[in-house]
Every structure is written in C-alpha cells, then in structure tokens.
Amino acid sequence: MDSYDFLIILFKTLLISVTLSCLVRKLRDFKKAPPGPWGLPLVGMLRSLSKTNSILQMVEFKKKYGKIFSMKVGYFDTVVISDYKLIIEALKKDEFQGRPDFEVWQIRNGGEKNRGILFSDGVKSWHEQRRFALRNLRDFGFGKESMEGMMLHEVDELVKLLKEKEGEAFSLRNHFNCSVFNSLWYIVSGERFELDDPKFQKFIGLFSGYLDKLPLFSPSHLYPWPAKYNVARRGLWKQYQIANETVLSHIDAVIDHHVKTYEAEVNRDFVDVYLHQHFGNNSEGTSFSTKEGLSHLRITLMDLFAAGTETSSTTLHWAVFFMCKYPETQKKLQEEIDNVIGKAPVSREDRTKLPYLEAFTNEVHRRASLIPLSVYHKVLQDCEFAGYHFKKGTIVYPNIYDAHHDKDFWGDPENFRPERFLNSEGTKTVSKEALMPFSTGKRICLGETLARDTLFYFITGIVQKFSFQLDPSSDDVDIDPPKPNFIKGPYNFQVVLKSR
Ligand code: HEM
C-alpha cells in the first residue's frame, strides 16, 4: 500500500467515524426528546391541527404520548406541556422565557428583534422594560383608588349605549372593546375617545377583527417567507399589516405630542414617566436611552394595546354568555349585588363582600380559557426538564386549557359551577392552583391587576342595570366553538337585554 492509499483509507475511516458519532448523538437526543406524532415533512402536524378542533386533538395526544409531547408544526419544533404542575415548574425556568422567532412578530416590532415586552425574549431589555412598566402603571392607577372614578365613568357610558339597544336582539361582540381600551389608554397616554365615534370604532375594530380570526396554529406565523417577502397580499395577513400600521402611526402621534409638550416636572401619564426615564441622566447603558429607548416605548405601547384590549373585552363577552346560558347563576349574581350595594356605584372596598361575583369571574376564566395555549414561549438554551431534553429554539405551548379542564383536579370540568371557588358556607372565595388564565411564572400577564379591576367594575355595573337573555336564535349555542382561535371567544350569540 502506497502512502496515497493509506491517506484515502484514513480519510474514509475518519468520515465514517464522524458520521457514526453524529448519528449516535442525534439518536441519543431523539431518544431524550418528548415523544409525539410524526407529521408530514415541511408541514408537520399543521394540516391536521388546522382541520379539526386542535384543543381536542391535543387531549388525544396527551392520552397517547403523555403530559409532555413534541410535534413538528410547520417550520418549527414544538413541545406541548399539558399538566398544571409541570406548567408552573416550566415557566419558572430562565431557559423557557423566550418568544418564538416568528417573522410576523418581528415585522410588528418595526423589523427589530427584542423590542418592547410581549414578543421580546427574556433578555436584559425585557427585564428592564417589564419592571418599569409594571411599577409605573401601578403608580398611575392599576389596582388603585384613583382609577375608580375613571372606570365608573366608562361603565356609565357603556350602560347608556346599551340602553339604546334594549329589547332588540343584537351581538355584544364589539361593544366592550372600546370601553376597555379607554380605561387602559387613559392611564397610558391621557387620551379618551367617545364610544359612538365611528372613527374610533373603526380603529379598535381593525385589531379586534384580526385577533378574532387568528388561528391557534397560524401558517402566517409558522412559515417565515410570505411575511418576509411580503407575498401574502390578501386575507388575514393584509388585515394584520393594516391594523399594525394604523395603530403604530397613532402611537407615533401620541409619542410625538408628548415629546413636543414635555416638561420635566409634569407627570401626565405613563408616556411622560417613560420620557423622564429616557431623557434623565441615569438611563445611560440601559434600554431607555438613545433612539433604542424610544423604539422600546413605541413597541411597549403597541403591546399594551394589543394584549390589553381584546383580552378583557372578550372575557366580558364570555361573562354575559355564561349569565345567559345559566340564568340561575345570573340570578345569584343579581341577588348578591342588590343585597350588598344596591344601585349605588360600586367601590373597591365592596370587593371582599361580593364572593359570588369573584367565584363567577374565576369560573368564567376557567371554562372560557381565553388564551388556551398562552402566549407561546421559546427555549433559549438547550436544557433538561421533567426527564426530557429541550432543544434551543423549540416553541413551548403551555396548555392552559388542559390545566383548566383537568378531570383529576376539577372533578366536573365541563360544568359551569362558580361554587367550586367558594368555601362550604359560600362566604369566601378559595383560590385553586390550577386556575391560570393569566399564565404563571416569570412572564405572567403584566396587566392582571388592571384586567381584574376592569372585570369587577364592568360586570357589577351591567348586572346592576340589566338582565340578559339569549335571543331564541342563539338558544342552542354550544359553549365551545368548533375551532378555537388564539383568543378563544364565544360563538357570536345574540342577546336581548332588559333594564332592571
Ligand atoms: C382577561 C384579561 C387578560 C388575560 C386573560 C391575559 C392573559 C395573558 C396571558 C396568558 C399572557 C401570556 C403570559 C406568558 O407568556 O406566559 C399575557 C401576557 C401579557 N399581558 Fe395579559 N391578559 C389579560 C389582560 C391584559 C391587560 C389588560 C394588559 C395591559 C395592561 C395585558 C398585558 C400583557 C402583557 C404586556 C403581556 C406580556 C408579558 C411578558 O411577555 O412579559 N394583559 N396575558
């Protein structure tokens, strides 16, 4: 054998051993990855998840593969966690605090990665922006007495509008979102709109219309190319673009106005305090300074708008649906509110005296499961969890719907029964670990306090003033829609209301 042959043999041996070691490593990773259905190349499980009720399909996968299962969906590796204890554990881990690299999310964020809060990975800027927003929104009224007058005013305005509909069958679908937006946006930017202003209704309707139709597993999210090259010029993608552009240009005008009228000693709203931080001396080296700081502000405002309007308003829509579907529940609510506060405006101190109202609200959250798979998380670093290997970049779906419908925990999850959240005397609410409408862990909803306040004031206000009934055309409407979306709203039922 000459030296040339020897080199060839050496090269081949090396190639074979490298290939073998890669294969062994892949096989080992594969063995440690959570089990799950195979799916088709390039599509994964997307087709079958979009054709059926994906939530129910995941119930079947859990039975077959266990509480943690993996599946390829479109372009992405994903893992579903279908157990409330494991969700609580997983969402505490630093490695699980990312957000998927969806092209559509980056486009919404002005083409930049890690801006604002909602779609930003759990990096330094997310920590800073989230902590700042939480502290200052609280100072401006979240969960505070000062907020009460503003909330009650919004409820009054809504009641006036609803009174005009008395006796006729109509859909409440777009009746709560403008009022809910006003209560959030006033704290954020000092702005308030008239509920019957058609320009305002159109503005709010743009985003609601989009979110209303966004599927749980949306191809526009799972394939990057159409969004990247802007080839999808019609349908939902187009609607998304128009909604984003319209809302962002309004936000730009709000920031511009605040910058032009800025005074160092004046705190009108959240935008002002953010600008103090931006212009202040101690912002150097943080995400608040320079142009980047203003870009975080812009996207944070977008986040608050997007995450805070449709969520609370759809929950209110669900609340009316359950009141109509279960009239005996509505009667108990009316009796409690009549006995404790009568027709007087409700106040924050009344809250502990209205345990049935709180139990009802919790049961609405549970049975509706508004965001069934939470806002998706992403694995930031290869890690081990619950005996499995999680690869960097994997999307994690915390299955909140499963937590809310776990038979072992709730006993009768299909029934709407507010009493499950009351003590045996019915005098106090009891908390339940598996209830997590606002998710759990490090990225738990930033607006939970505001959302709870909004639901408290609005439900009390409308129950004081009206009785609700399903129109006979909606009498046999099911609770669960056949294909739940990213935000799971009720069927578009028709309601008839009567003044009390
Ligand atoms: C009933 C009403 C609401 C529900 C059910 C809800 C639910 C949720 C859920 C499930 C998440 C995902 C948490 C996670 O990633 O694990 C979330 C995140 C978020 N929510 Fe809410 N939300 C509601 C209202 C609000 C309101 C009123 C605001 C505005 C102030 C808001 C602002 C946010 C923000 C900014 C995030 C992102 C947090 C982060 O990524 O760190 N939400 N919400």
From TrEMBL:
Annotated GO MF terms: heme binding; iron ion binding; oxidoreductase activity, acting on paired donors, with incorporation or reduction of molecular oxygen, reduced flavin or flavoprotein as one donor, and incorporation of one atom of oxygen; steroid hydroxylase activity
Stored InterPro entries: Cyt_P450, Cyt_P450_CS, Cytochrome_P450_fam2
Any single biological process term in GO: organic acid metabolic process
Pfam families: p450 (PF00067)
Keyword Oxidoreductase found: yes
Domain of life of the native organism: Eukaryota
Record bears the keyword Metal-binding: yes
Named cofactor requirement(s): heme
GO CC, one annotated term: cytoplasm
Keyword line: Heme, Iron, Metal-binding, Monooxygenase, Oxidoreductase
Family to which the UniProt record says this protein belongs: Belongs to the cytochrome P450 family.
Protein name (Swiss-Prot/TrEMBL): Cytochrome P450
Organism: Allacma fusca
